[in-house]
Design goal:
It contains 12 helices and 13 strands. The chain has about 375 residues and is an alpha/beta fold. An 11-stranded mixed sheet has the order 12-11-10-9-8-7-4-3-2-1-13. A two-stranded antiparallel ribbon has the order 5-6. Bound molecules: S-adenosyl-L-homocysteine and iron/sulfur cluster.
Length: about 375
Amino acid sequence: MTRSLYDLDAGQLEALVAEAGEPPYRARQLAHWLDGRRQPDPRRMSDLPGSLRARLADRFAGAGLTLERHQAGDGGWTHKLLFRLPGGDAVESVLMLYPVGGGDREGDGPRARATVCISTQAGCAMGCTFCATGQFGFTRQLSAGEVVEQVARVSTMLPELRPGPDAPDHLTNVVFMGMGEPFANPAATWGAAWRLHRGFGLSARAITISTVGLVPGIRRAATEPLPVNLAVSIHAADDGLRDRLVPVNRSWPIAELLAAVRDYVTATRRRVSFEYALMAGVNDGVEQADRLGRLLAPLRVPGSGGHATHVNLIPYNPTPGIGFASPSKGAVRRFRDAVAATGVPVSVRANRGVGIDAACGQLRTSAGRPGRAPHGATEVRQ
Ligand code: SAH
Ligand code: SF4
């Protein structure tokens, strides 16, 4: 079964069009709608003949994503979208808008940004103890097309989602940081990344893949000829604590993870960011910060000698039913300063969408409990 029109390649589109008795140029038009205009819905492909549109809509009636729920937060600058997949599961995508000069990551520059955070799996098998998705368990892999279609759907919705004229009018960045572990679904992850680059025209540097630390995945990323950004979710600087937070650490402990990152940097000369979700009283002490800094400080970009890593601190976004809490502002500041004291570049990620449960997996969890109105959220459509 085709799950998404984005799972069809150029040859398959040609065959489809030929089957319908249409001339080959219709396949190029169809591809232009899908990639150039990011329109996954055949009924809206207005310059295709009505008969072809109807045929495609009928043939792929069970395919594609359906918007099931939309919540806006941060005054319309953050949007959470829950998409129903063919077969019944659901995944979430989050759109984060930033005005000119409003980015929260190093090197963001002055231009306005629209970043979409997408999912690669329904659920996740990695079982991180603080993560709503991990606690939900794994349901199924997404196809490459289902990953790409999230970007297409958010792109076409962007004009109506923008809170005002100072918000960007097109997507500028894609991060694989939604539900699931991208490197546990490498075919879909890389297939989608290539399509976003070649088809949607996003530069590789506008794409970031975040991994919990699957070493074979990092090694593959080092050889993949698409120079996307790599983010590694580390969350602890010693194996004892990381084993508890991130169970996969038992397979690839910190030393092995850092060896893979070092080889990645040597092969690609690209910097790697490390994500660290700060949880009160668990991993937010200055001794952990110092330890983290000392682990990462020796990693340098060959040739330039500059630091090869950057730490992104994410104050934990509490999830009902999961026993971890946000750190105090003072703890975040002290942690950041202790990392900075080791020389490793560090920044604190602005906490987006707290009122709409916008952290990984939280929307689906709350959608599973009818009647619960998330604090501070605006329910836009259901
Ligand atoms: N599986 C990949 C990508 C998805 S998770 C990974 O783990 O890297 C995206 C990021 O959100 C990870 O860094 C994850 O640890 C973090 N995260 C998950 N739940 C969170 C929460 N409640 N608050 C803050 N960050 C969270
Ligand atoms: Fe999976 Fe990432 Fe959540 Fe861990 S943090 S359970 S790897 S989605």
